[in-house]
Amino acid sequence: LRWSDGAPITADDVLFTYRAIYDTNVASATSDIVKIKGQPFAVSKVDDLTVKIVTPETFAPFLESVGAGIPIVPKHKLEKALAGKKFEAALGIDTAPEDLVCSGPFKLKQFKAGELVLLERNPWFFEVDKKGTRLPYLDNVIYTIVPDMNAMSLRFLKGESDVFESVRPDEFERFKEAADKGKFKLVELGLGLDRAFLWFNLNTGKNPKTGKPIVDPKKLKLFSQPKFRQAVAHAIDRASICKSIYAGRAEPNYGYTGRENKKWWNPNLREYPFDLAKARALLAELGLKDRDGDGILEDADGLPLEFVFNTNTGNNTRDKIAVLIQSDLKKLGFKVTYQPVEFNALVDKIDVSYDYECILLGLTGSSVDPAGGMNVLLSSGFTHQWFPKQKTPATPWEARIDELMNAQLTTLDFPARKKYFDEVQAILNEQLPMIYTVAPNVYAAIRKDIANVRPTVLSEFRVSWNVEELYFKK
User: Fold this and answer.
1) Measured in whole angstroms, how far is the alpha carbon of residue 164 from the centre of its chain?
2) How many Cβ atoms sit within 10 Å of the Cβ of residue 232?
3) 234 Cα distance to chain centroid
């Protein structure tokens, strides 16, 4: 076992990886996944190729979370950065390719901002095929960078790329027509694990620089009402989103886990059909009415119901959904200012500055086990979108989710785990910190002459997740 620079991979790298994960100076979403009730695992070295891990209690998802979910990082390249509290800044877009050391099938050869990422075969990659041939088969993989999803589609259809991981449902007929002519293979995978939702900022903290509340107190008071969020859920016309944006190849979604995950899905969740009358009634219970006849709802003090609505630029589908939701909320009497934001800037708003009011985004993941969402569902979680990294749970229902998620970790009895997670789904479905929209069908496309393709919904790389095994037949 060797890193891409030829240095040996040993147990010391594993110990270093866990040291970095648990280091309080490192903002790590991974740490939530390898803890039990906030307690880290004890990781020790037996010999150069053997590591011993002891969990504080029984840890049901150990094989998936630890065995498959934790990439190992090179101690010899990053130890100084961790010691100097500069771990997160150790690598960047200006990092020299030879310094970006990895253990996967390919390593970085060249990066051109706004143009491409060029990978080359890692000669030290450890896997071999059944005949003993060292993988990967391909010499290079190139990821081209384009401005938006329409440009991605056009490049593939023109034959300028070999793989297209995410064919949008509304493009299905266009791609199927081309695929039927023998140009490539179109893969239909059914419902995917991706979840699109909107959420309101429920952060009760203050800006450390200004001392002012992160969210306007009057808006926070409103956003924090479950009835307000339920009203918004009833104001989203999911059927229209499915029909007009996904060409009917999607279905309304109301829960954290959908029916595609048969093992864990709770089928007894409440639905929120498009019902403006129901939404108005819920808002009226909160004292929101159109008091001056201008079409905008106001509170008892006459303040209008308005907020800024963000999503990321470059995602045409998400942009269309945001515009449709803005229109639906306008019918209800909301004044919504829609502002698309560049993706990295949006992530900064979510994870760093918390400077936003409402966001439409999504989460993807390769895990079908609820433990894969510990960083989202725990109130202390790094990706607890609506109010991350809480010192103590901000609400009783978040405290209950903490209790249930920790309980499901520590039993190997599946019916018990399922019961705990069913309740988590029910709480989320009632409280709606994440207001879900629709669940789309998943499609991908790939050249017909590429072999060893094994499509899956368990990765955003739907047809190239096993890139080390892919090769051209001719």
Assistant:
1) 19
2) 25
3) 24
Q: What is the DSSP letter of 7?
A: P
pLDDT in tens, 253-289: 999 998 889 999 999 999 999 999 999 999 999 999 9
Q: Is the pLDDT of residue 366 over 70?
A: no
Beta strands in 59-184 (DSSP E): 106-112, 116-121, 140-144, 163-167
Q: What is the tens place of the pLDDT at every residue in 137-167?
A: 999 999 999 988 899 999 999 999 999 999 9
Helices (H) and strands (E) counted in the chain, each on its own, are 14, 18
Alpha-carbon gap, residue 450 to 10, rounded angstroms: 34
Task: Determine contact, residues 214/355, Cβ cutoff 8 Å.
Answer: yes
The pTM (predicted TM-score) of the whole model is: 0.87
Summary mean pLDDT of the chain: 94
- Locate 40 and state its tokens: 């880290």
What is the chain's length?
Answer: 474
Helix (H, G, I), strand (E, B) or coil at 450: strand
| Stretch (H or E) spanning 239 | helix 238-240
E strand or H helix that includes residue 373: none
Which H or E run contains 159? Answer: none
CA distance 274 to 242: 13
